[in-house]
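> example.struct
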């Protein structure tokens, strides 16, 4: 795992990237790539990129497809099939003919994936040609991402051979499908911190960041409350004097801080995570497994745009952050909630569920809840991974299978695979709606 000193500047960088994204068009992606790798006890296929359908021929039919891998034809050469698909089971797809390329990437026969999520994309080669499968109604050039997991499998049991295998149907950047089978055995990716920017108000409008520590071991974290730092990134109306409170799962206060130099100054500086301004807040603490809440507010009832961050400074394998969430006031433009998180731990992948809640909060006595939340997941380069308004519109079955489906149909959710890197979940209101909302990231 990388040192947290590496992650310190990336939070600011991610924030700047996302702000720029809100005002600009995302850059184009270069082709569609599936990476097959051994991650702990499982083999994981992770796909991402965009596909240019120009030059392909639509078969004018839709079908259903499951995630699978077939490295080698086990039938006669004129009747066999090889290929790979990633995404959720029983996915509706459109099929196109025209690709040409790989005819074998190992010696194994058909294997169905244990589970899958995201967009269904597949490539298959049979004796009369190759065929590309994309989600039904796919718009050429749109971003795609997906995952398939082969639980308890190895490259040997799947019969795949490490290497790079390519299918093409033109010379443009997005007219290719690439399969990369990596040799390295990778650790699973963990969530190492969250950084959420929101409009900090008073009363129910304070910003509340919740997180869960699991694994049985203790974990050291640094929690920061920033305000003046945001002015370095052209954020207007920054919170002038942030203050932090930390609570355990029963609501009992366990720590607090107003100005970070008031206590733990030397210890916080030693982590490399000291805030830039003396009026900003920080808490360094070792926590056991459990649920915790960090509350960001303004000293003496002041308000403004603030940033609450939770850093994992230990990286202990047996203890990790598995769920992070932030509740705050969702406005428009710069006042949407911007939740950044870092997935780390080698080059492995993990699956996350991002939820945007609003109506559900009324059940807990929250007034002025966001009526119709929207969530957008953005990678560290500013590319939109996925967006959702009403969670049942897409991935309904896959989201329900996680056990974390939003209680209200107007709430939003995204189930997506993420490789190690920086990501941002943006919570906004459909049609410019405003109110108190909750954005959550579940591993």
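> example.seq
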């Amino acid at each position: 795992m990388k040192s947290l000193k590496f992650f310190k500047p990336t939070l600011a960088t991610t924030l700047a990237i996302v702000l720029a994204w809100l005002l600009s068009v995302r850059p184009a992606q270069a082709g569609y790539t599936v990476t097959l790798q051994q991650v702990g006890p499982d083999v994981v296929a992770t796909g991402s990129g965009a596909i240019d359908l120009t030059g392909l021929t639509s078969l004018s039919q839709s079908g259903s497809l499951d995630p699978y891998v077939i490295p080698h034809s086990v039938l006669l050469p004129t009747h066999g099939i090889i290929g790979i698909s990633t995404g959720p089971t029983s996915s509706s797809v459109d099929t196109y003919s025209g690709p040409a390329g790989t005819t074998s990437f190992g010696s194994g026969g058909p294997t169905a994936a244990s589970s899958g999520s995201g967009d269904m994309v597949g490539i298959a080669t049979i004796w009369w040609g190759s065929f590309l499968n994309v989600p039904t109604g796919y718009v050429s050039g749109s971003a795609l991402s997906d995952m398939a997991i082969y639980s308890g499998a190895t490259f040997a049991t799947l019969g795949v051979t490490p290497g790079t295998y390519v299918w093409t149907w033109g010379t443009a950047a997005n007219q290719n499908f690439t399969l990369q089978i990596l040799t390295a055995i990778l650790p699973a990716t963990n969530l190492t911190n969250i950084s959420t920017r929101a409009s900090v108000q008073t009363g129910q409008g304070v910003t509340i960041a919740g997180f869960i520590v699991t694994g049985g071991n203790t974990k050291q974290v640094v929690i920061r409350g920033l305000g003046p730092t945001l002015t370095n990134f052209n954020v207007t109306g920054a919170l002038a004097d942030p203050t932090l409170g930390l609570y355990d799962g029963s609501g009992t206060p366990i720590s607090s801080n107003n100005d970070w130099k008031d206590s733990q100054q030397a210890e916080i500086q030693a982590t490399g995570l000291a805030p830039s301004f003396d009026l900003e807040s920080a808490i360094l603490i070792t926590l056991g497994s459990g649920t915790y809440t960090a509350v960001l507010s303004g000293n003496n009832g002041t308000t403004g745009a603030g940033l609450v961050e939770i850093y994992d400074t230990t990286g202990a394998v047996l203890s990790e952050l598995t769920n992070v969430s932030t509740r705050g006031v969702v406005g428009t433009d710069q006042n949407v909630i911007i939740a950044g998180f870092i997935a780390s731990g080698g080059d492995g992948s993990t699956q996350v569920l991002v939820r945007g809640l609003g109506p559900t909060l009324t059940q807990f006595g929250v007034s002025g809840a966001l009526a119709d939340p929207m969530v957008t997941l953005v990678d560290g380069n500013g590319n939109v991974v996925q967006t959702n308004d009403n969670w049942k519109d897409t991935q309904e079955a896959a989201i329900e299978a996680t056990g974390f489906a939003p209680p209200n149909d107007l709430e939003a959710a995204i189930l997506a695979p993420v490789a190690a890197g920086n990501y941002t979940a943006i919570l906004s209101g459909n049609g410019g709606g405003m109110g108190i909302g909750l954005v959550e990231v579940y591993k």
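> remarks
Residues 1-29 have pLDDT under 50 and may be disordered.
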